[in-house]
Amino acid sequence: MDQNINELVKELEAVPEYQKLFAQAFDDKITSEHIADALASYERILIVNDKPFDHYLAGDSTALTIQEKLGMEIFAGKGNCLTCYAGASFSDNNFDNLGVNNGDLGRFEVSNDEDDKGAFRSISFGN
After folding, report:
1. Calpha distance 66→47 (Å, rounded)
2. How far is CA 83 from CA 37, 40, 71, 86, 122, in A?
3. Which of 6, 2, 5 is nearest to 106 (CA)?
4. Which residue has the higher pLDDT, 53 or 32?
5. What is the rounded CA–CA span in Å between residue 93 and residue 86?
6. Cβ(98)–Cβ(112) under 8 Å?
7. What's the chain's average pLDDT?
8. HSE on the CB side for 76, CA within 13 Å?
9. 96 bridge partner residues
10. Which of 14, 68, 76, 126 is deepest in the core (most CB within 10 A)?
11. pLDDT at 1
12. Cα(4)–Cα(109) distance, rounded to whole angstroms?
């Protein structure tokens, strides 16, 4: 996740099987663009809308257990989680700093913006 893309290209090029697979998929060598395309293709197959929560949202009140419903009350209520985890993918895709100081600079590592220190993207709960 935090690997330099040029290093990743070199690392993948060192594996003959990856060279073969990229040539089959892209009719070309391994490039950062092809890596991005491959990852995007993989992520597109991960979208699943057949989870119990999806059924609950569609009106099936029996789709969640009592414990799951209680957890959802905290999530939507005092946890205030819907501020960041909303929409179709259950993420606002924003970078937020929740005040956890563990030494990880987060988004700042990419942006060099002081306001991004300790900020991380809200992951998607959609899958």
Report:
1. 26
2. 31, 26, 16, 7, 10
3. 2
4. 32
5. 10
6. no
7. 89
8. 7
9. 120
10. 126
11. 59
12. 12
Among the listed residues 3, 1, 14, 6, the one whose alpha carbon sits nearest the alpha carbon of residue 33: 6
Tell me how far the alpha carbon of residue 81 is from its chain's centroid: 16
pLDDT level of residue 54 (50, 70, 90 thresholds):
confident
Residue 120 has φ and ψ, to the nearest 5°, of -135, 150
Q: Give the list of residues 6+ apart from residue 116 with CB closer than 8 angstroms, or none.
A: 95, 97, 106, 107, 108, 110
Q: Which of 53, 64, 121 is nearest to 88 (CA)?
A: 53
Tell me how far CA of residue 54 lies from CA of 40, 90, 111, in angstroms.
Answer: 23, 11, 35
Instruction: Please state, in angstroms and rounded to a whole number, the distance separating the CA atoms of residues 111 and 127.
Output: 28
Contact in structure between 93 and 121 (CB atoms under 8 Å): yes
Distance linking the first and last C-alpha atoms of the chain: 19
pLDDT tens for each residue of 33-47: 999 999 999 888 876
Higher pLDDT, 96 or 89: 96
> From CA 124, how far away is CA 39, in angstroms rounded?
16
Q: What are the two backbone dihedrals, phi and then psi, of residue 29, each rounded to the nearest 5 degrees? A: -80, 175
